[in-house]
Write a structure and sequence with these properties.
The chain contains 18 helices and 23 strands. By secondary structure, the protein is α/β, with parallel strands linked by helices.
Length: about 575
């Protein structure tokens, strides 16, 4: 695809592409069943002569029932025997086309994934979803398309260092894919032609934490109007990062340096303005750096629905939160559309979807429901297939059906798979999140972050480590805890039964300083994890994470967080 000659032409072409792909998907939603039949037929036809296709009789499959009989449900890790052959450069194992790369993701289980990326997968499955997912942005904030430096894209970093498979193919996150090198110029992504996108070569080996600083440092001298986070943990961490970086940013702008090296002419005037703002607010906020910010694009469900409303205060009163498209390294799920506050209709033209009720076990022969069989208000495990080499793959994410668009279910990301259960209660993440929302409303407390687990010692019970936006007193904490318990009894039948029988104690709430969660996020990014991969996780069983978040810590942080820590006490818990 030829690159448009000017920024205006490129903006117009991008807008037209986004609208076209969006309209094609929306046009299929009135007959989701037919769209799904087409997707299934295409993936079977494209890959029937592969090793996997022959082993599972793709050429004999005529419909969804035949497909379900021939292919068991598998987790990604169960595709290893075939993926090992693909990585050894054997041809036509999972896909008829040669993979050009592999998407990486730590996923729900923590095990590294390698998802084949073929040209057909990109053109037929991924790119239509990718473009259509920015439909509301392109139509409602079209001014962001007219300047390369109007958008700070903290999700994508196509110039960051990526890995290789043992077969030598790129192994990278979807946010690292360099579409320009693939000839897809319009897919390069908003903000990825900005001055901060491709950092000087001397920073090529910088850690993800330092790369984030360098990009924000450059953007601090530009009129940024939109910020793309996708992963809401990135949006939540930015005010904390600015607290850490404020003195450095101001000094470097004053001196005209980037990472301690000469970068552009010194700007003492801009530095003085920022210094005054930092003194007034105790730290720089996104709203201070970019007062005309109009858009934050991020997922707004799961844990983020607890903290995003209050977080927007740091981004400015004029900043609109737009929901990001929903997908994973395994494949697309849903696109946002105007009028829906969260989630979106399933992308029935990209993947073949099956669903298992959230309370049922994900076994190889688990009965599944198709798109047209879903019920509003219910939650489901997602099983997806596409022509990129995933067949009935259980991605271990749970979605909630919130309505219908045309004849297609509207879904939002509800939670990860898995339960907390010490007395047979089988509490899911969505049970806890719904109960937390109710407890926040009743106690008038706002949450910055939270993690939850079964009590490791003592009587059977659960505990939550919660960073409240303002430290509650003991009476308020007690009121919140009672509301949480009552909410869990309403949302989780097994929990209510265990509480009534006396088999389960009331939950324990441990208030901690917000800085503790941000310090943990920082630790992971400083040790090499890219920010798009460091996501919120409600159910957290790792003892070392609990120790770091709830035990005494002397890690440096922004002054505003230190002030709040004093309200909590020296050990980070409510004093």
């Amino acid at each position: 695809m030829a690159s448009p000659r000017s920024l205006t032409e490129r903006a117009d072409a991008y807008r037209l592409k986004v609208v076209r792909e969006r309209d094609l998907i929306l046009g299929a939603l009135d007959d989701a069943r037919a769209a799904q039949e087409t997707v299934l037929d295409e993936l079977l036809t494209a890959n029937k002569e592969t090793v996997f296709g022959r082993e599972h009789g793709f050429s004999r499959i005529r419909d969804a029932d035949g497909y379900r009989r021939a292919v068991p449900i598998r987790g990604h890790e169960e595709f290893s025997p075939w993926l090992e052959r693909v990585h050894a450069n054997e041809k036509r194992v999972l896909t008829g086309e040669e993979p050009m790369a592999f998407f990486a993701s730590s996923g729900t289980t923590g095990a590294e994934k390698t998802v084949p990326v073929t040209k057909g997968f990109l053109q037929r499955c991924f790119l239509p979803f990718y473009f259509a997912g920015f439909g509301p942005l392109a139509e409602e904030h079209s001014g962001l398309l007219t300047r390369d430096d109007a958008v700070l894209n903290l999700w994508q970093d196509p110039h960051s260092r990526s890995g290789r498979t043992i077969g030598g193919k790129p192994h990278l996150g979807p946010s690292q894919l360099n579409y320009g090198k693939l000839g897809e110029d319009l897919a390069v992504g908003l903000g990825n032609r900005a001055p901060w996108s491709d950092l000087p070569d001397r920073f090529r080996d910088a850690s993800p934490w330092e790369r984030s600083y360098l990009r924000v440092r450059i953007a601090a001298e530009h009129d940024v109007r939109g910020l793309i986070a996708v992963n809401p943990a990135i949006a939540a961490a930015l005010p904390y990062q600015l607290g850490v970086w404020t003195p450095r940013i101001i000094q470097e702008i004053h001196d005209g340096t980037l990472g301690g090296r000469a970068h552009r002419p010194p700007d003492p005037g801009r530095a003085r303005v920022l210094a005054r703002l930092a003194e007034r607010n105790e730290t720089l906020r996104p709203a201070d750096l970019w007062p005309e910010l109009e858009l934050l694009l991020a997922w707004n469900t799961y844990v983020a629905r607890l903290y995003l409303p209050a977080l927007l205060e740091d981004y400015g009163a004029g900043t609109e939160l737009l929901p990001a498209p929903i997908g994973s390294s395994e494949g697309p799920l849903a696109i946002p559309v105007r009028g829906l506050p969260a989630g979106g209709p399933l992308v029935v033209t990209s993947c073949f979807y099956e669903f298992v009720p959230a309370d049922d076990a994900l076994t190889p022969d688990a009965p599944t429901l198709l798109v047209h069989e879903l019920r509003t208000g219910e939650e489901y495990h997602v099983v997806l297939s596409h022509r990129g080499g995933l067949y009935r793959c259980a991605i271990r994410d749970i979605v909630r059906v919130t309505g219908v668009y045309g004849a297609t279910p509207v879904v939002e990301y509800a939670s990860r798979a898995g339960t907390v259960s010490t007395a047979g209660e089988r509490v899911r993440e969505s049970h806890v999140l719904d109960a937390l929302l109710g407890a926040c409303a009743e106690s008038r407390l706002a949450i910055c972050n939270v993690m939850y687990r079964a009590l490791p010692d003592g009587p059977a019970g659960h505990e939550a480590a919660i960073a409240f936006r303002s430290p509650p007193d003991r009476d308020t904490t007690g009121r919140f805890t009672r509301a949480l318990d009552a909410g869990l009894r309403r949302t989780a039948p097994g929990y209510d039964a265990a509480r009534r029988s006396g088999a389960l104690a009331a939950p324990v709430v441990r208030p901690v300083a917000p800085e503790r969660f941000f310090t943990e996020w920082r630790r992971r990014v400083e040790t090499g994890e890219r920010p798009p991969r460091v996501k919120d996780r409600l159910f957290q069983a790792a003892p070392d994470v609990w120790d770091r978040v709830t035990a005494p810590s002397h890690a440096p942080g922004p002054e505003r967080a230190h002030e709040q820590n004093r309200a909590y006490g020296e050990d980070g818990t409510l004093g």
